[in-house]
């Protein structure tokens, strides 16, 4: 089968790009709120002010060639992450695992000299990775040490959990597992493996690599179905709180599980992708319509999460 | 589509209806052609006045047509050969007057008129509503013959039209009635004949007049002047052929002048002037003819149209008006098909450049420039330049490469290679930059895939934007762009799946195994 029939996708409740943009992103996400999520610095500050756990910010590089400033920021820290404040899709993120004299060891094991790091910073600041190519800032932040739970199904890098929150209700989720192909990055279009998570139970469902189904991790060969994600309720609560914080109706929340600090919010996305549907083999439309049909959405976070899990259970009890 | 899209739908419908309506009006009423390169029949009528000058001041005056019914005047000109010319218009009559202080020998004056059929044949005949003519008094026995004839005709008619027809039939019958024989006496040319008919109609108190003209249907060198009878029935003027009684203005009859003025008058010569007419048929560009027609109808639409621009600007707009079609193609390919490209409208700009280079050479030159540019870009990457200086460097290299390719192709005599100068260099530089970044971040495969995708869209865009028929349609009927705009609005609310998604989500088309 090369193409699915539109009616088949409709029957599975698959949300298409055009419909997502016209009926959800443009309808529920006021453009004036975009800077809150497009600029990771703003997101981080807003989250910190409201007591939402995020990776600690070591500092910001705003000026080209400010090597001294940089040196002070990372003094005494063995590992850190460099990322563009306004990057998208994981582009321009550099994970430094360790330092060896004047060199830095990246998460994939390669050693880069100081010079290369400085060049990377200047590329970030000149706006190479920012949406629309505007000058940007580079964030230097805490490197997440991933939860041993994911040891068997990750290749380098840190897996992250993407939760789609609609009108404050978590409706779908997946975990993105880095692979050799994705160079340790947790981005699906770079080759990471997407694994759906049942909202009700926190249990992994199906996998997707590229656009094809997967049942095992391509590098470790471990099965990926049937895990229950730890701290699941906390993750859902974090996602719902983030949605309340930025006020966007249709939001993607990226959360990582740190070995020591538990779930941390990595970034928010006002135009979350549609691969979560492939990972779960369930379209988003069913869940979106169920939320739109609700007479009232509870204000309290625990009530809301309970309702979200209940809706998910009623939708497909077999998976629960 | 749901919720609030009716607003868009109504707007789109209004835009499309306006566009199609204007287009229909221009095509049906102004007869602007829907096909490119159409010609239409036009006629050139030439009046020739020959006179014998005898060293005296000469004044010649020729009746000429003014807005002849059923025709549109495209052009007219006079050949005066040393005579001074003045054209005088008085109500619905027009005369050309030539004058010269002193002339000797045979002189010829020309008046030439270029005509096309009007979009509609005028339904009303010009001319004021006449008063009833005074009761005619005739000499006997002529008077008795007329009265007897009129009494007979009145018996067998119901109104002015049937009366006239019956009268004409009886008057022209070959086997005689003695009254008709009497009336015919002393008439030896058609002009006298029609004047006699007017005279008889006056006896019935029916207003009538005569117009003269010629049939332009068949091209010939010596076209005779014919007369037409006009009869007023109380509300309008009706045409009758004075010899056959046929009603109506014949299709190809060009009314030249009113019967109450002479065709030609000349003062200052001894012999009567000769007037002759000739008709030739030619083909003219239908757009030109339609413009004249529109002028004639007083249509603002065509007067304020692109056709009134200077030719070089017209050519610019011929290209510019195609750009929205290219943009529409991009909308379809991105939102319905789901292709990815470098930059939203970059393929359209490339397609515009292809117009000059032709498709095959365009693709060859594009691939050549981008590949060479990419090589330089990879080298620049190692120099670790900042963004803007790097972009500027790539741009400079693109320009230099273009110059080198032009020079080489000039030396080797490949003319096509010269047109590389028309490539949008800034767009090329940006394309090279984007390609190299995607190359680095997502690998060569993705980068080349998007590059080829852009090239495919550019080629399709080229095919659409150079389509002669579309070009003609959009240029002559720019309001069709409103239709395109309406379609764009509708597609802006298209929330169905993209073709690429039907493939992407095919794994999710079946319910998952449980």
Protein architecture, described:
The complex is a heterodimer of chains A (320) and B (514). Chain A is α+β, with helices and mostly antiparallel strands. Chain A folds into two domains: 6-51 and 146-319, ATP-grasp fold, B domain (D-amino Acid Aminotransferase, Chain A, domain 1), CATH 3.30.470.20; 57-141, no CATH class. Chain A has helices spanning 6-11, 17-28, 34-38, 40-49, 67-73, 114-125, 232-246, 275-280, 285-292, 301-315, and strands spanning 57-61, 80-84, 94-100, 103-106, 111-113, 138-141, 160-166, 169-177, 193-197, 204-209, 212-214, 250-258, 262-269. In chain A, the strands form two sheets. Chain A has a seven-stranded antiparallel beta sheet. A six-stranded antiparallel beta sheet of chain A has the order 1-6-2-3-4-5, with helices on both faces. The radius of gyration of chain A is 19 Å and the shape is globular. The mean pLDDT of chain A is 87. Chain B has 514 residues and is of the alpha+beta class. Chain B has a domain at 314-477. In chain B, a hairpin with a 2-residue loop joins strand 3 (84-90) and strand 4. In chain B, helix 2 (142-155) crosses helix 4 and helix 10 crosses helix 11. The radius of gyration of chain B is 36 Å and the shape is elongated.
């Amino acid at each position: 089968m090369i193409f699915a029939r539109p009616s088949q996708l409709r029957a599975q409740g698959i949300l298409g790009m055009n419909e997502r943009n016209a009926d959800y992103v443009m309808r529920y996400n006021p453009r004036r709120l975009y800077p809150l999520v497009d600029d990771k610095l703003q997101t981080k500050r807003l989250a910190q002010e409201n007591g939402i756990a995020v990776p600690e910010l070591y500092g910001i590089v705003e000026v080209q060639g400010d090597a001294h400033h940089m040196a002070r920021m990372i003094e005494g820290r063995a590992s850190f992450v460099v990322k563009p404040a306004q990057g998208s899709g994981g582009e321009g993120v550099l994970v430094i695992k360790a330092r060896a004299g004047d060199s830095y060891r990246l998460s994939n094991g390669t050693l880069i000299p100081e010079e290369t790091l400085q060049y990377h910073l200047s590329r970030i600041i000149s706006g190479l990775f920012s949406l629309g190519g505007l000058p940007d800032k580079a964030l230097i932040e805490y490197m997440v040490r991933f939860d041993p739970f994911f040891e068997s199904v990750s290749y380098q890098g840190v897996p992250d959990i993407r939760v789609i929150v609609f009108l404050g209700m978590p409706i779908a989720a997946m975990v993105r597992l880095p692979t050799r192909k994705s160079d340790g990055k947790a981005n699906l279009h770079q080759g990471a493996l997407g694994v759906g998570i049942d909202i009700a139970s926190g249990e992994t469902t199906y996998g997707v690599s590229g656009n094809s189904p997967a049942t095992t991790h391509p590098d470790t060969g471990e099965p990926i179905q049937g895990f229950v994600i730890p701290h699941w309720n906390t993750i859902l609560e974090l996602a719902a709180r983030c949605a309340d914080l930025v006020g966007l109706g249709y939001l993607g929340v990226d959360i990582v599980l740190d070995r020591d600090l538990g779930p941390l919010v990595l970034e928010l996305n006002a135009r979350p992708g549609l691969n979560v549907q492939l990972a779960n083999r369930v379209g988003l439309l069913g869940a979106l319509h169920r939320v739109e049909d609700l007479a009232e959405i509870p204000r309290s976070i625990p009530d809301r999460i309970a309702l979200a899990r209940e809706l998910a259970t009623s939708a497909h009890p077999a998976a629960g | 589509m749901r919720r609030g899209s009716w607003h868009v739908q109504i707007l789109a419908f209004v835009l499309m209806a306006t566009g199609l309506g204007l287009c229909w009006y221009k095509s049906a009423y102004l007869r602007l052609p829907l096909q490119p390169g159409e010609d239409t029949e036009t006629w050139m009528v030439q009046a020739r006045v020959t006179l014998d000058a005898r060293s005296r001041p000469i004044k010649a005056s020729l009746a000429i047509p003014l807005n002849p019914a059923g025709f549109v005047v495209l052009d007219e000109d006079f050949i005066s050969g040393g005579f001074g010319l003045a054209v005088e218009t008085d109500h619905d009559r027009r005369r050309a007057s030539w004058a010269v202080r002193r002339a000797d020998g045979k002189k010829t004056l020309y008046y030439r008129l270029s005509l096309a059929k009007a979009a509609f044949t005028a339904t009303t005949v010009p001319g004021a509503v006449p008063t009833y003519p005074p009761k005619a008094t005739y000499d006997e026995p002529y008077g008795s013959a007329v009265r007897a004839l009129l009494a007979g005709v009145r018996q067998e008619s119901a109104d002015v039209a049937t009366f006239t027809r019956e009268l004409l039939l009886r008057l022209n019958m070959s086997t005689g009635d003695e009254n008709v024989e009497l009336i015919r006496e002393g008439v030896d040319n058609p002009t006298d004949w029609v004047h006699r008919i007017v005279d008889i109609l006056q006896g019935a108190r029916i207003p009538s007049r005569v117009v003269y003209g010629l049939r332009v249907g068949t091209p010939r060198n010596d076209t005779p002047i014919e007369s037409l009878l006009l009869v007023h029935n109380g509300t309008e003027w009706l045409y009758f052929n004075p010899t056959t009684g046929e009603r109506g203005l014949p299709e190809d009859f060009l009314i030249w002048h009113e019967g109450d003025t002479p065709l030609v008058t000349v003062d200052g010569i001894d012999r009567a002037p000769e007037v002759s007419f000739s008709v030739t048929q030619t083909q003219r560009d239908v757009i030109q003819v339609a413009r004249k027609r529109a002028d004639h109808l007083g249509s603002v639409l065509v007067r304020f149209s692109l056709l009134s621009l200077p030719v070089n600007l017209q050519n610019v707009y011929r290209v510019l008006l195609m750009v929205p079609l290219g943009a529409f193609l991009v909308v379809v390919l991105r939102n319905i098909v789901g292709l990815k490209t470098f930059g939203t409208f970059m393929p359209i700009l490339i397609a515009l450049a292809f117009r000059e280079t032709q498709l095959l050479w365009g693709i060859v030159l594009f691939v050549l420039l981008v590949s060479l540019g990419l090589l330089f870009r990879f080298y620049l990457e190692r120099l670790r330049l900042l963004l803007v200086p790097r972009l500027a460097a790539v741009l400079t290299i693109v320009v230099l490469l273009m110059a080198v390719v032009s020079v080489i192709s000039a030396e080797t005599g490949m003319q096509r290679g010269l047109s590389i100068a028309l490539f949008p260099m800034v767009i090329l530089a940006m394309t090279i930059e984007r390609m190299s970044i995607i190359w680095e971040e997502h690998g060569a495969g993705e980068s080349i895939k998007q590059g080829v995708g852009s090239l495919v869209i550019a080629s399709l865009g080229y095919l659409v934007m150079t389509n002669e028929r579309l070009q003609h349609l959009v240029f002559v009927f720019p309001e069709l762009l409103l239709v395109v705009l309406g379609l764009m609005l509708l597609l802006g609310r298209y929330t169905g799946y993209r073709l690429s998604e039907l493939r992407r989500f095919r794994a999710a088309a079946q319910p998952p195994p449980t």
